[in-house]
Design brief:
Blueprint lengths: L2 H8 L5 H4 L1 H21 E5 L14 E5 L13 E4 L14 E8 L3 E5 L2 E4 L2 E2 L13 E5 L4 E5 L9 H4 L2 E2 L3 E10 L6 E2 L5
Antiparallel strand pairs: 1-2, 2-11, 3-4, 3-11, 4-9, 5-6, 5-8, 6-7, 9-10, 11-12
Length: 192
């Protein structure tokens, strides 16, 4: 038998998963890190409606901070992403909403003469699209709940329609707009 034939009979071809083992391991680790980050730390979201205009526009892409709420309560003016409570006004509670935090437990909220009142004081809402064209009697935010409203007051399915948001429904806080590029790119400002 020639030397060439001996070499041919000794060569073994490794299966594809062994040939690309290092690449597969790197991909698996990267995928595990990405899943962990999205589940517990930060996740991207798409703005599907105009309920938060002018602050957030349809098509904006934002990052949601999911971890800070574990150490501190959201503040007035924070823009939160959450699952709405199950009511007749919220037909699909599996779709996340995005609204501004207006009231916390113990606050009295009312809407009259085109203004939102918290504990008897009108809010300075320079961020809204237009003044509300509706009125709402005063309500007391119960323990363990928030009062949420969209910045586009007259075109928002929010607490004035479906009531109080249980704290446990909050996913996180909108922190950064990463698309579209340009002057609106960057940190999402909040107002109290």
């Amino acid at each position: 038998m020639s030397t060439e034939n001996k070499l041919d009979s000794q060569v073994t071809v490794k299966p594809w998963w062994q040939q690309h083992g290092e690449t597969i391991r790197i991909f698996a680790v990267a995928l595990a890190i990405a899943i962990f980050l999205r589940a517990f730390i930060v996740e991207p979201r798409f703005i599907p409606s105009g309920s938060m205009e002018p602050t957030l526009q349809v098509g904006d892409r934002i990052l949601v901070d999911k971890i800070s709420q574990r150490w501190q309560e959201p503040q007035y003016g924070d823009i939160l992403i959450f699952y709405p409570p199950a009511t007749p006004a919220t037909s699909d509670t599996s779709k996340a909403y995005i609204k501004r935090l207006i009231g916390v437990e113990g606050d009295r909220i009312a809407i009259k003469n085109g203004k939102v009142y918290r504990n008897g004081e009108p809010l300075d809402e320079s961020y809204i699209a237009e003044a509300p064209k509706y009125a709402m009697r005063e309500v007391l935010v119960p323990k363990g709940h928030y009062w949420m409203m969209g910045d586009n007051r007259n075109h928002s399915n929010d607490s004035h329609i479906w009531g109080f948001l249980p704290k446990g429904n909050v996913i996180g806080k909108a922190t950064i707009r990463f698309f579209p590029f340009g002057d609106r790119l960057g940190a999402i400002t909040t107002s109290k």
